[in-house]
Amino acid sequence: MITRTPIAVHREAATPFERGGWQRQLREAIRDPVELCRRLRLDPSLLPGARTGHGLFPVRVPVAYLERIRPGDPADPLLRQVLPLDAEANAVRGFVDDPLAEREHTPRPGLIHKYPGRMLLIASPTCAINCRYCFRRHFPYADNAPSMREWEKTLDYLRSDGSIQEVIFSGGDPLASPDRRLAALVERLDAIAHLKRLRIHTRLPVVIPDRIDDDLLGWLTATRLQTVMVLHINHAREIDEAVIAACARLKGAGVTLLNQSVLLRGINDDVESLAALSERLFEAGILPYYLHVLDPVTGAAHFDVPDDEARELVEALRQRIAGFLLPRLVREVPGERSKTPL
Ligand SMILES: *Cc1c(COP(=O)(O)O)cnc(C)c1O
Ligand code: SF4
Fold it and tell me: Which among 207, 271, 272, 266 is positioned nearest to 233, based on CA atoms?
């Protein structure tokens, strides 16, 4: 068990990986299914399926994440999140391109206002990793990557609605954006008096822990807004020492750390995995927040866990772990004003 005392965390603390900056790691992420299979010594019989899936939603795996995958194991729970499969080409009834009907809630490009009091900004069109089950795998990001000038109009929307207390940076992955851009955006948000909180939904600190560098901590600590980071981790083995170090730096900067997971067939659909995940999250200073059932997006049906089974799993989990380590099992229902508990 690792105890985290924010005061003891120094910004100077070097991260354990010396691979060059995060930008370089982002650029050098693996984007070729052949290379993915080769580096992980996977059976060549997986290649045709990987190519098919890659054609539908491209492979993207940063090396820092790849190194946590067990070579030669096609069932590895980390591998399954990133390896394209033949099954992605299956059309399955009920699985659609925009399962959350987000395109109906974009009053301006890059802005999703569905829930009272908080508003989501698509702060970056890209991700550091492409997760096969992603509900935004068909999202038209090209139409949703505003320039700084266009941001001004989005900010006007925010300024004119005094009921919005919280801005959520989403994506893509918002932390795939350069710090300069994020800092400029946060500075403008800072000046909007009715805003209280900045929330960042990101997987970057998990997949490239070196993302949590001094430049990022600079703008995160400079804002008057309270800061919350909602990470996305689905399996305990995603949390290695580098992730723990990145989380310690964030906590040292006063950031509240939460996690959301997706319940995924073959990855974390058993009580042992979910219990281990919650325990490991807490060791890293992160509280479990949501456990989402899969959004029915085209190409991801093979990850689906039926509702009844999901409820039973969480019931069994409740009897295993501390109450505050239990995530809320939810689904996103288009048109609802919040996530829907199952
Ligand atoms: C999930 C989500 C939020 C945040 O919801 P919380 O329940 O506060 O975590 C906000 N806006 C949109 C569009 C969302 O999908
Ligand atoms: S990091 Fe999040 S938004 Fe990006 S592909 Fe994975 S699930 Fe989707």
Answer: 207
